[in-house]
Design brief:
Helix content: 25-40%
Shape: elongated
Number of strands: 24
Largest sheet: 8 strands, mixed
Distance between the termini: 84 Å
Number of domains: 5
Structural class: alpha/beta
Length: 692
């Protein structure tokens, strides 16, 4: 029997006093499943920690089978926790470098149980939670639900009378949460289980007693208990926590062997000279090495970048932040002075001669080399990547043909996808260029399957830190139905609900499946054919048969490896998704340089080979054909009405309302509803027939 009487706990921080528990009194039966509910900061976890002996109360009393704990010493609390309490935490608290079996055995090790008995009891406990086939795995090879079951097995290995669970389903999905709760309910059949949770639905469904806490006080108890009404159970004999010397040596050796290099270096340094001096050197060396490692990893994702055009933000930021003001800058009473922020920034715009810089770096690499890790050159080249399977038509995935069709300026889908960068969605594509020097990133990742790219036509799939692949990546890889992506994009642009089934499938993909995805790269110049009649080059991208043949004979792009970030690394260099080598860009540039359209354009520099007109003539015609904004509105209305036989009033906007706006802003505001309406009701093919 467990009884709390007038328990009070406060925390003092820099003059601020926070009361976590305010004279809480509650008793628990020897056999029940009690759930403690309440908002964050209500004192739930504090009460659980006090019951488990992880924290100590300021006043009041905690009685265990009628025995007060007021006079408990640290050794008494250790014995209490080791014999009568089992803990299940939300964060699992498993030792990553030890196997599942070793994690469960650890509690018995501290109790001095012999090795053979430890292994037998730990194996049985893992069988009871359904993990018999996973005893040799490490925690990072298990799912969240499996890790939680390991934590439960570890909590039960000493057969505790009380099981304390702090948000055991907080990091789990619905299905896994149900499995864990079923397991806890079964455990509660013959012992006391106290669970802290935010999920009232789970509490009402599984617990036979629900206690609500608010501001450190119990506000309701569905099944209160008065200890005087029931005979108290006699506690079993306590076993002092401890382990044999040989067991301690074995555990220490196992821990040391997980980091062999570090163990050897530490032993070597400790054997040199006086222990005191050696210790100081070891600490200093270790600190410097750690700082250097953090600096290197951090700078790998924030490199020194030199672009063709730059702006001076120094004046802007200093002026914006206030800064000192002389008498000439002060405004007269009753007036406000202009602060030149934009003019200051743009007046200091500069152009960098990147060609000369590259030439200098190439010639002086020997002098610069010792001061840099790597020098990388990025070119404005976007690989034109398609799905290799063209049986259902040509499908471009970089840039993505579906999402590009629904990008309406900065406020369209593009901004939405840029916001998705935190999920490993860089802009509108999952394809990214990796650094050329593998030493920059190789140590930051674990190779889960295959190997790193060795040639220009090979790529690697980079998973998230949790070893996951986003649904966006699966759509662009063709492993999920891309028609669903199109429908979601349409729904997003029209502010409607997508008529698709979310959450279908089990969401599991084998490494073999992910690596079997095929892509084809098409040289952008190959999409143009020369028209001898008009002496121009014609874009054949809209010709489905032409593009199908072009993609079929395109350059195959193969996924040769799958990697994920090493959990011990502070920062990583590669973006989640598919990463290709700089050699691919060099190959595409070389191919483009040899294409006929490029040679033709270079030989006729003053003429646009796509239109047959000179650039000067095009600029002059553009200036002569400029018309007023009112004409633009009328053209839009006439074209839409005549070409589609629709009532423009259905577009839900008043064109006249934009007549006083600047040309570019008004045009943008009008084109969004017009284009969205046409795209969703008439399709791209018909829009191409418009006389505009």
């Amino acid at each position: 029997m467990l009884q709390l009487t007038d328990i009070r706990k406060t925390y003092q921080t820099s003059g601020f006093k926070q009361t976590a528990l305010d004279n809480v009194s509650v008793s628990f039966r020897d056999n029940e499943f009690a759930a403690v509910l309440g908002p964050s900061g209500s004192g739930k976890t504090t009460m659980l920690n006090i019951i488990g002996g992880l924290d100590h109360y300021d006043s009041g009393d905690l009685e265990i089978d009628g025995i007060s704990t007021k006079e408990y010493k640290p050794g008494d609390w250790d014995t209490y926790r080791n014999n009568r309490i089992g803990f299940v935490f939300q964060s699992y608290n498993l030792i990553s470098h030890q196997t599942v079996l070793s994690n469960v055995e650890l509690a018995l090790t501290l109790s001095g149980v012999p090795a053979a008995e430890r292994r037998a009891r730990a194996t049985k406990a893992l069988e009871e939670v359904g993990l018999r086939d996973h005893i040799k795995k490490r925690p990072n090879q298990l799912s969240n639900g499996q890790m939680q079951r390991v934590a439960i097995a570890r909590a039960l290995i000493n057969d505790p009378e009380i099981l304390l669970a702090d948000e055991p389903t907080g990091a789990l999905d619905t299905g896994t949460s149900k499995q864990v709760m079923d397991l806890l309910a079964k455990i509660a059949e013959d012992r006391l289980v106290i669970m802290v949770t935010h999920n009232s639905e789970l509490a009402e469904r599984y617990a036979n007693r629900v206690i609500h806490l608010t501001d450190g006080k119990i506000v309701s108890d569905s099944r209160p208990f008065e200890p005087v009404e029931e005979k108290m159970r006699a506690g079993r004999d306590a076993i002092k926590a401890g382990m044999s010397f040989l067991t301690a040596i074995a555990l220490s050796f196992s821990n040391l062997m997980t980091k062999k290099g570090r163990t050897f270096m530490t032993s070597f340094a400790g054997s040199i000279g006086i222990i005191g001096i050696a210790t100081i050197i070891a600490v200093a060396t270790g600190t410097n090495a750690y700082i250097a490692k953090v600096e290197k990893e951090t700078l790998s994702i924030y490199p020194l970048t030199i672009q063709k055009t730059g702006f001076d933000f120094t004046g802007l930021l200093s002026d914006f932040g206030g800064g000192p003001h002389n008498d000439e800058q002060k405004a007269e009473p009753g007036s406000v002075r202009e602060q030149k922020l934009i003019e200051t920034m743009f007046s200091n715009r500069n152009n960098n001669d990147l060609e000369s810089l590259k030439s200098y770096l190439d010639k002086n690499h020997g002098k610069i080399g010792p001061y840099v890790k790597s020098i990388e050159y990025m070119y404005d080249v976007t690989p034109q990547i398609y799905l290799a399977d063209t049986s259902d038509g040509v499908d471009q995935v970089n840039p993505d043909s579906i999402l590009s069709a629904y990008t309406m300026g900065d406020g369209g889908m593009g901004s939405f996808m840029n916001f998705g960068g935190m999920m490993g969605i860089p802009g509108m594509s999952i394809f990214n260029e990796m650094p050329g020097d593998r030493k920059m990133y190789e140590y930051q990742y674990e190779v889960m399957a295959g190997n790193w790219p060795e040639s220009f036509d090979e790529v690697v799939l980079v998973l998230s830190p949790g070893g996951r692949v986003s649904d966006f990546q699966l759509y662009q890889m063709g492993l999920r139905d891309r028609s669903d992506l199109k429908e979601m994009a349409e729904a997003f642009m029209n502010n409607t609900e997508a008529n698709i089934e979310f959450g279908k499938g089990d969401g599991k993909y084998s490494y073999e499946t992910l690596m079997s995805v095929g892509f084809k790269i098409v040289n952008a110049a190959d999409r143009y054919l020369y028209d001898e009649k008009y002496n121009i080059w014609v874009d054949k991208s809209a010709d489905k048969e032409f593009m199908k043949a072009l993609v079929d004979k395109g350059l195959p792009l193969k996924i040769v490896g799958i990697v994920k970030p090493d959990p011990d690394v502070t920062a990583t260099s590669l973006s989640a998704g598919i990463n290709y080598t700089p050699e691919l860009i060099s190959y595409l540039m070389a191919e483009a340089a040899e294409s006929k359209i490029v040679h033709d354009q270079m030989s006729r520099k003053a003429m646009n080979v796509l239109s047959g007109k000179t650039f000067e003539q095009e600029n002059r015609e553009a200036a002569e054909s400029a018309f007023s904004f009112a004409d633009l509105i009328q053209v839009d209305e006439d074209v839409i009405r005549d070409s589609f036989d629709i009532d423009t009033s259905k577009l839900n906007f008043d064109m006249s309302a934009f007549s006083d706006l600047p040309m570019d802003i008004a045009t943008y505001l009008i084109c969004i509803p017009v284009n969205s309406y046409i795209l969703n009701n008439y399709g791209v093919d018909r829009i191409a027939q418009l006389p505009i």
